[in-house]
Amino acid sequence: MRSSNPVFSRRGFSRDNGYAGFNAQQPQAGGPAVGTNPYATGNPYAGDATNPYATNPYAPQDTQLSAPQQARGNVMTIDDVVSRTAMTLGTVVLTAVLSWLLLPVDPANLGKSYGIAVGAALVALVLSLVQSFKRKPSPALILSYAAFEGVFLGVISAAVSTYIADGVVIQAVLGTMAVFAGVLIAYKLGWIRVNRRFYGFVMAAAMGFMLLMVTNLLFAVFAGGDGLGFRSGGLGILFGVIGIILGACFLALDFKQVEDGVTYGAPREEAWLAAFGLTMTLVWIYLEMLRLLSILQGDD
Question: How far apart are CA 37 and CA 14, in angstroms?
Answer without folding.
Answer: 13
